[in-house]
Amino acid sequence: MTTPSRSEILQCKSIGKGLDGFRETHTSNSKDIDKRSEGNEGQINTLVDLMLALQSLLASRSLPSKRGNTALFNDLLSLNSAIFSGNLDTARIKPLLEAVLNKEPNDVIWDRVYDAVTESTPPPRPPFSFQQTLQLRNTSSFANLNEHCKYVDEVLKEELGPIYVGIPHFFKAFFSEIVEPAA
C-alpha cells in the first residue's frame, strides 16, 4: 500500500469551510496580534482557536509531520503547547493567521502551517563546565595484584580530579549530626 502524496491528501481532504468558524469569530485582521502584548489573554485565545481549528481538519491527521513518522496534527499539538508556555514568537504564526483570514488556497495555508510548526535551529549549547578528559585507564582495570597497587593512587587522582585536604571544620560542617557508634 502506497502512501498518498501531499497533493492527493489535500485534494481528498480539502479545507473547504473548515476554517469559516474561526474566521467568523476572529474577524479582526492579523495586525491585532502585533498590537497585543506577549502573553495577552486575547492573543493566546486567538492562537489557540487557530490551532484547534487546524487540528479539526482531516488533512492535519493525514499530512506527514516534518519531525518524523507522525502526522502534522502532532506538530500542531506541540505548537499549541508552546503558545501556552509563552515560548512562542508570534512572528512564526502571523503568516499562517494572515493566510487563513485572507482565505488563501489550501496549498498556501498548509505551507504556512508547516512554516509555523517548524522550529528554528536552537542556539548552540554552552560547553560543559567541568573538565572532560579521555580516560585511558581507571581503577576498574586493575586486578587485585600487589604489583599494581603502586599505580592505584595515581589513577584515583585522575578519576576524582582535584582533592582538597585539611579543610578547617569540614567534619563539623558536614557530619556533626552523625553519632559515632560505641566501640
UniProtKB/TrEMBL annotation:
Regions of biased composition (Basic and acidic residues) lie at 21-39
Ranges for region Disordered: 21-40
Descriptive protein name: Uncharacterized protein
Where is the organism placed in the taxonomic lineage, from the top?
A: Eukaryota, Fungi, Dikarya, Ascomycota, Pezizomycotina
